[in-house]
Amino acid sequence: MSDTGLPSGQPARAGESAITRPQVIAVDAMGGDNAPDAIVAGAVSAFRQWGTRIVLIGRPGQVRPLLAKHGVLGQIRLVTAEDTVAMAEGALASWRRPRSSIAVACQLVHLGHATGVMSAGSTGAIVAIARLRLRNLPGVLRPALAVVLPTHPNPTVLIDAGAIADPKPEMLAQFAQFGSAYAEVALGAVQPKVGLLSIGAEPGKGNKLARRTYELLSSEQAHGAMPINFAGNVEGGDLLAGKVDVIVAEGFTGNVALKTMEGTAAFTARQFRSALSSSRQARLGGLLARSELRQTLSRFDPETYGGAALLGLEGTVVIAHGAVSELGAASACRVASQMASGQIADRIKERLGPQRPGYFLRRT
Amino acid sequence: MSDTGLPSGQPARAGESAITRPQVIAVDAMGGDNAPDAIVAGAVSAFRQWGTRIVLIGRPGQVRPLLAKHGVLGQIRLVTAEDTVAMAEGALASWRRPRSSIAVACQLVHLGHATGVMSAGSTGAIVAIARLRLRNLPGVLRPALAVVLPTHPNPTVLIDAGAIADPKPEMLAQFAQFGSAYAEVALGAVQPKVGLLSIGAEPGKGNKLARRTYELLSSEQAHGAMPINFAGNVEGGDLLAGKVDVIVAEGFTGNVALKTMEGTAAFTARQFRSALSSSRQARLGGLLARSELRQTLSRFDPETYGGAALLGLEGTVVIAHGAVSELGAASACRVASQMASGQIADRIKERLGPQRPGYFLRRT
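^ inputs. structure came back:
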């Protein structure tokens, strides 16, 4: 790591506040369909526009010429990682590629050289690598993946979007705290309303996991140090209704719902577009309404509504969409930096409160 | 039941072919937001247009005047049921309302007076009542709810859309057989391709249930008497992609995905509509493309793409959308009749083959 110029650090102490550490974001230059070009361009843009402090991780042979092209050689640090994780690789990459750019990025956070990670690589691989390399925050059972849904006027956080398979109800209750912290720090929500994704509005609806989680979220006991503003069950149709600030879901169902939402929005948009080119008159109509329609379409562009955040770990991990462009990469760097400055980790610790052994499941 | 004029029958024997019995559809006149008016009108329309044989079940005081209005008094039979299940009632209605119109409709099938049921009432209540009143087909572990998704050019069957909570993998393997039979009988598919709803394309992806179900669907053993044409995992984004004829899902996730799809399509359509009225020019454009846009919107109207079918029971149960109109009610009656004529029950029995004790879980 001679390229970093960073002091060789001790692992950051878990109790240490994020604000006392420099908000450096470790950017995986090699992850994503348009890497490294779009990622480096985005990181440079975040550095220039908002002064985001960046460390790039990747192959010097590819990244250095890009830094030179943007005229920031020497201004943005570069850490060498010759190995990369392919977009098609999943969780096994955490074992197969111990020296990949994303593994090195996580290691920088673990050693205290950085406070957050940004990558546009394979979500499955990033989650697995981050879980292996980064410690859970004290008392956290499992980390969870949060995404911001494009609801209006207020965005809704969906958590867990697929980090954890077969979770326990106690984990979902913690995810409600993570999601609330995220809604407060990243979206400015006050006393965020939390809904539980199920298949009916009544408390008794859903499978065993949903029913037990409902009980936990309704009871004082499960709330950690700070109360959860629990608003009951929400259904699949409420995902975009903006009824609540946070939707807690079991990861499998959350992931299916998220992808169904993206797929349906894209399908509907395609249908409308083809309707608007099916006759001469419709084409003229589409032409007249062009700018309004384009604006609507952009709202469903995953790049516009941003990436996912892995919460519950000692560092903020932001996962941008694989097909991210310069603009999206820049905004993901900014989000990672904002979350680190907003002390999302401290906020989660505060919400969970001191660990109560015997109540929560053992941390694994 | 003196109103029926039906011979007092013995329960239909399970082995008896549907084709030897008259294809009479027991229509719950009292279920649905627009009941009994729209339901009776729809049933009359199915009777007139396609010769569908109908028995209406409901309050004579309300239904008889409607039959008189349509001029079919004496042509369409009426069975009395004074109790009804409200749209807000769930599974508990099966115990609370033993003499409801939907319970009586199921009883008619059980006694051999009808071969199918059509209701636009509360899905939860209908599923619970049908499970209580109708026998499972031989070897069937649990019935499942199938819906037809509006994919193009070929529709896709999603099964289970929410009938069974916390199923076992062996049940999902059976659902693949039900779905294949449904795709053959109702949609004319040949060797229907079956996908498993999960959170990644690879076999190892998903939670324990999905992984075990994948194994079962891939092995010869689980296929029953006829092979399943298993095409591997599909993701939420593939729901409308038309890649497969049947998508097998665990009921909780299947229900969330279905409602997410409906909610997102409605949300996207609303966004487009408001985009088309946001400026004078856009309004003019929308006006010019009006008929094409309306056609596109109708494709996502649950009423157009029809209701759900509860499969695996001794009689066909078709559940129309609660807000169903005359047109939708008529088409649901026709679907129920077609499924009964297409011998969906025989087709499922054939696919499952002789019961193999010890392999499948005990029937409950």
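Chain B has twelve helices and eleven strands. The longest strand of chain B covers residues 53-58.
thumbs up if we can close this ticket
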